[in-house]
Design goal:
The protein has 2 helices and no strands. By secondary structure, it is mainly alpha-helical.
Length: 54
């Protein structure tokens, strides 16, 4: 457990030092997943709308 805490502390230091890079990477990943999800949702939503309109 002590080792786990020390590694977490080390990770905190690393993430604090490179926070801007991490934030950029996270934002990029979030943007990608959002576009992928919205595309899939639009495809499904379009199919449902077509069925309702028929």
């Amino acid at each position: 457990m002590a080792m786990f805490r020390s590694t977490m502390r080390g990770m905190d230091k690393i993430s604090f030092n490179h926070s801007s890079d991490v934030d950029k990477a996270l934002a990029e990943a979030r943007r990608r997943t959002q576009t992928r999800q919205s595309r899939a949702f639009n495809r499904v939503g379009g199919n449902i709308r077509r069925r309702i309109n028929q």
